[in-house]
Specification:
- It is built from 4 helices and 10 strands; from the N terminus they run ααβββββββαβββα.
- It is an alpha+beta fold.
- It has a single domain, classed as Immunoglobulin-like.
- The protein has a 5-stranded mixed sheet with strand order 3-2-5-6-10. A 3-stranded mixed sheet has the order 4-1-9, with no helix packed on it.
- Helix 1 crosses helix 3.
- The chain is globular, with a radius of gyration of 18 Å.
- The termini are far apart.
Length: about 140
């Protein structure tokens, strides 16, 4: 009987991040001019290995989470394109899922992307390429 209870508990806890936050994430995208002023009305394409999404700034779009970074390219007539790459990071609950949900739960969350997160706001500077999160962003900030 105890074996059945433990097995059931592990199956219920497997995929914990999937259950708590799911495979999708809402992202807000805004564009600014090189001078720093808000520049609404840019058309942006967000891409990762799970798909492509489109939004007009300022706006929000729901994307599928992934281990891979998300690339955002924005265009607006009269301005050079702006590009931002937002780093995918592992959510803290992924480690807890490994402990409580076991290898199966962790594998499910990693495979579906549920174990990962992007910054909730992606700011694209028109005419520039920038990195958000990770070592590349830290190096840019030091320049």
């Amino acid at each position: 009987m105890l074996r059945i209870i433990v097995t059931s508990a592990l199956l219920l806890l497997g995929g914990c991040a999937s259950i708590v936050t799911g495979q999708n994430q809402a992202l807000s995208v805004e564009t600014v001019a090189e001078a720093g002023s808000s520049l609404p009305g840019a058309n942006c394409k967000l891409m990762n290995d799970k798909g492509s999404w489109f939004v007009t700034t300022p706006g929000s779009v729901t994307v599928t989470r992934s281990y891979n970074d998300i690339n955002v390219t924005c265009t607006k007539e009269g301005h050079n394109a702006g590009v931002a790459t937002a780093k995918s990071s592992t959510k803290a609950m992924a480690a807890g899922n490994l402990i409580f949900g076991g290898v199966i739960g962790a594998a499910v969350d990693a495979g579906t992307g549920a174990a990962f997160d992007y910054p909730s706001l992606i700011q694209v500077i028109m005419g520039k390429t920038r990195f958000i999160g990770g070592e590349q962003a830290q190096q840019e900030e030091k320049k």
